[in-house]
């Protein structure tokens, strides 16, 4: 199984990327492609720019989704919504292919330093992604990242068990 995984942020110190890596490390036997969305930086989407052509980076990102069997996204929350970097990729990519996520099984993750764990962006993604071919199978929000995560793993027993359960749900959707 080819699994595309990425943190939906351009931060070089992303806590969401750490969470994504923690999850992908638990998916033995699968080919994991870990993308860095910094490799897909492009002009901010506008209708005028769209009329002059789609950037190659948008085409390349869509191709990565097309080649995947499943997707894992670590949703960074900026002011209660998507990071600008991810929103721009999403805007361009959905112009290339309305069914941007191509009905691939998805696992959505989020975390933040605060007690809500990025729940606002998770709620937004959960309501929006299905309109763009998002086939969400599992979701997990980790609150208070610095208190609940260390050395590549969730450290709080209850939260670690919840994450394991969500990973198992996602795994069952892969076969």
Number of domains: 1
The largest β sheet comes out as: 5 strands, parallel
- For CATH, the homologous superfamily is named as Flavodoxin domain
Q: Sketch the topology as an H/E string, one letter per element.
A: EHEHHEHEHEHEEH
Structural class: alpha/beta
What is the name of the CATH architecture?
Answer: 3-Layer(aba) Sandwich
Protein described:
This protein has one domain: Flavodoxin domain (Rossmann fold). A 5-stranded parallel sheet has the order 2-1-3-4-5, with helices on both faces. The chain has 7 helices and 7 strands. It starts with a strand and ends with a helix. The radius of gyration is 16 Å and the shape is globular. 37% of the residues are buried. The longest helix is centred in the C-terminal third of the chain and has 17 residues, at 157-173. With 175 residues, it is of the alpha/beta class. It is 41% helix and 21% strand.
């Amino acid at each position: 199984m080819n699994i595309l995984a990425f943190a939906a942020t351009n931060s070089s110190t992303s806590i969401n990327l750490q969470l994504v890596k923690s999850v992908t490390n638990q998916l033995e036997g699968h080919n994991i492609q870990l993308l860095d969305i910094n490799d897909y930086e492009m002009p901010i989407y506008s209708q005028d720019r769209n009329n002059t052509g789609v950037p190659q980076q948008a085409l390349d990102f869509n191709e990565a989704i097309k080649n995947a069997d499943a997707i894992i996204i670590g949703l960074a929350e900026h002011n209660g919504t998507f990071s600008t970097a991810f929103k721009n990729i999403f805007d361009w990519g959905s112009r290339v292919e309305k069914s941007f996520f191509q009905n691939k099984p998805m696992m959505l993750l989020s975390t933040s330093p605060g007690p809500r764990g990025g729940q606002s962006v998770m709620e937004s993604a959960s309501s929006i992604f299905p309109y763009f071919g998002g086939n969400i199978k599992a979701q997990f929000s980790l609150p208070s990242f610095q208190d609940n995560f260390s050395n590549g793993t969730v450290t709080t027993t209850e939260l670690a068990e919840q994450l394991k359960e969500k990973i198992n749900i996602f795994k069952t959707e892969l076969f």
